[in-house]
Amino acid sequence: ELILGIESSCDETGVALVRTREQGQAPELLAHALHSQIEMHQAYGGVVPELASRDHIRRVLPLTQSVLEQSGHALADVGLVAYTRGPGLAGALLVGAGVACALAAALDVPVLGVHHLEGHLLSPFLSADPPQFPFVALLVSGGHTQLMRVDGVGRYALLGETIDDAAGEAFDKSAKLMGLGYPGGPALARLAEEGDAQAFRLPRPLLHSGDLDFSFAGLKTAVLTQARKLGDELEARKADLAASTQAAIVDVLVKKTLAALQSTGLRRVVVAGGVGANRQLRSRLDAACAQRGVRVHYPELHLCTDNGAMIAMAAAMRVQAGLAQPQRDYLFDVKPRWALEEI
Ligand code: ATP
Ligand code: MG
Ligand code: FE
């Protein structure tokens, strides 16, 4: 069966086509297309919800067309339409949900609303070397930072999460006050490669808290204080400050992930979400896990941030696991706030 996936929760419009295979075989990605609105929102220093919704409207059908062309399939071949039901911006979500339901109604096929974070979580299954259950998942995105125990599709137990900012937010906010634009995570990471990570002593919040929770709000304040202290010198020391900031974030992420492995006794880690693209995080985690004989899986680099492939994939895996009830009433709703444990 062919599943069309539509992602529109924030500032990326993503569409993809996957094909489910026999039981026990991972679904196959046939084509995907993406449009990022980053440039449009950059002038405002953050995502403007109304502009995001309007741009999703403009992009979603051309992207769908492109995915069909790439895959050599016709719209009529699609057997299920999946869309991101939440969490995310309400208006942005409604665009994807509305288009998905309209397409499905016209095709007379069912629709399925997918949890955005389940999409991120299952995105490593799109890689050439997919993980096996069970594993510890480190979900690090722009809006979430969670450690989970994952025993199978739909079997997610929260081990710990951030009590304030997400890891991606820590990257973005620090980058913003260093004048690196929005979202500055990738720019901060790039600059950090030229800096000295030991140059500034920044806090590692909750590192020794004994639980698996995170806190990044204090780090951002410490970066701000350091930047102010540097004054005119900031420009010359920016790479050092970026490297020190990245080291603080990565340090906490790696140590808490190791603690989660220890407390669960599991020997496999899956990293997902935009911050999973961070090279420093990957190399530190790889090194620490190699020492302990633990396997680490990542999504492909271009599938770490939002995309339609992970939505189609999550739908395919839920259907295969017998967990999803695709709908035919086309009465869609969206869930701007929606905890992963609730599904
Ligand atoms: P959520 O999925 O929680 O709703 P989101 O969809 O906005 O949030 P993602 O698309 O998964 O988040 O990831 C975007 C985040 O990843 C941004 O905060 C961005 O700065 C960060 N990011 C992307 N690449 C890197 C990198 N190389 N280093 C650090 N951060 C990065
Ligand atoms: Mg985004
Ligand atoms: Fe996301």
TrEMBL record:
Q: Where does Fe cation bind?
A: 116, 120, 306
Supply the PROSITE patterns for this chain: GLYCOPROTEASE
Keywords of the record, alphabetical order, are: Acyltransferase, Cytoplasm, Iron, Metal-binding, Transferase, tRNA processing
The enzyme's E.C. designation? 2.3.1.234
List cofactor names only.
Fe(2+)
The entry's family comment says: Belongs to the KAE1 / TsaD family.
Name the principal localization, coarsely classed: cytoplasm
Q: What is this protein called?
A: tRNA N6-adenosine threonylcarbamoyltransferase
Q: Where in the cell is it found?
A: Cytoplasm
The record's annotation in PANTHER family points to: TRNA N6-ADENOSINE THREONYLCARBAMOYLTRANSFERASE (PTHR11735), TRNA N6-ADENOSINE THREONYLCARBAMOYLTRANSFERASE, MITOCHONDRIAL (PTHR11735:SF6)
Query: What residue stretch is flagged as signal peptide?
Result: none
Q: Which reaction does it catalyse?
A: L-threonylcarbamoyladenylate + adenosine(37) in tRNA = N(6)-L-threonylcarbamoyladenosine(37) in tRNA + AMP + H(+)
Gene Ontology CC terms, in alphabetical order: cytoplasm
Give the co-factor note.
Binds 1 Fe(2+) ion per subunit.
Q: What are the binding positions for substrate in this chain? A: 139-143, 172, 185, 278
The protein's role, per its UniProt record: Required for the formation of a threonylcarbamoyl group on adenosine at position 37 (t(6)A37) in tRNAs that read codons beginning with adenine. Is involved in the transfer of the threonylcarbamoyl moiety of threonylcarbamoyl-AMP (TC-AMP) to the N6 group of A37, together with TsaE and TsaB. TsaD likely plays a direct catalytic role in this reaction.
InterPro entries noted in UniProt: ATPase_NBD, Gcp-like_dom, KAE1/TsaD, Peptidase_M22_CS, TsaD
| Source organism | Melaminivora suipulveris
User: Which GO BP terms apply?
Assistant: tRNA threonylcarbamoyladenosine modification
